[in-house]
Fold this sequence. Notes:
By secondary structure, the chain is an alpha+beta fold. Helices cover about 25% and strands about 35% of the residues. A hairpin with a 2-residue loop joins strand 4 and strand 5. The model has no long low-confidence stretch (mean pLDDT about 90). Magnesium ion binds near residues 42 and 43.
Amino acid sequence: MPTIRLDRLVKRYGSVEVLHGINLEMADNEFTVFVGPSGCGKSTTLRMIAGLEDVSDGEIYVDEKPVSHLEPKDRDLAMVFQDYALYPHMNVARNMSFALRLAKRPAAEIDRKVREVADILGLTDYLRRKPGELSGGQRQRVAMGRALVRDTGIFLLDEPLSNLDAKLRARMRTELAEMRARINKNFIYVTHDQVEAMTLGDRIVVMSEGHIQQQGSPEELFTNPVNQFVAGFIGSPAMNFLDGELAEEAGAIWVKGDGYQLPLPADQSARIGHVATARSVRLGMRPSSASIDAASGAPIDLTVVVAEYLGAQSVLVTRCGGAEVLVEVPSAAGRMHAGETHRFGVRTEEIMVFDRASGLRL
Ligand code: ADP
Ligand code: MG
């Protein structure tokens, strides 16, 4: 499997720089996901790797060979786009074999490849159908099949599921996760959806405004985000942020704000060291870190604004001082009503503090 390395990759459109020096190494046989809000530069990065956009500065290496001067067809990769325009007059088999027929591969090889890939994608029974006779999810699979039949080691996908409705998207996500185990290729997958990123990626690259904010496994990004952006982007419902100040009392460091005060866990206190004067921070607390069992952690009083019943879980929208705080609770614990104030227990080992000015995690 070829490995890809991006070295100080820069993209400018005219005088506007949209990618500011991306460094990235992708390991062998890895599923890498680029995730970030719309406009952060995910597609641009992918299109530069594919050879559809010029490189303004820096270099792309495939197996340590620079490729930025190569035409797309001379790079060892295949790409699936968000709008997977299929040829409407060709049946599934002919859509899938298009590139192979163009490359004048022998008929027996084309037939074998199409059958192999159709089998992986569950399209065997549909090979004679035209795209118009397929569901959205099946059309999406044909678009993938068209890329998979080509003998490339790198497979690029740009928001391939975003044209599907929510239910189908969830199913295709599961199918993709299953499928990738059977396909020996490097994947680079672009999405703005952090749930897709978390469920599919071996490694997630979080981007914002033309910079990589952090890369790591889903667990690393969730438990150890480097800054407030990543902490707020990864995880659903999103992390709560409350303005506060750090203060040292009796050898422990506390984070205090409007309506709360919580002790920092020992490892974080040790990392921060001494707090001589109060320091402006932002407390980060995930909705899953507070429990209705007040005795299970450090106490915090929250006033319920709305209780959103989701089935087994409910999400409480609460207020703490002036801030809104979401809390996830098991619905079996009983309904909570708007206006009630309850004492919750915070697992302080899960809270984080960020510098208020820079957003960096302390
Ligand atoms: P994403 O895929 O993360 O949503 P893009 O990579 O498409 O973002 O875009 C990154 C930035 O580059 C955006 O600010 C976008 O407006 C800009 N951009 C993309 N394509 C062009 C173009 N052809 N000309 C000028 N600016 C562009
Ligand atoms: Mg895009």
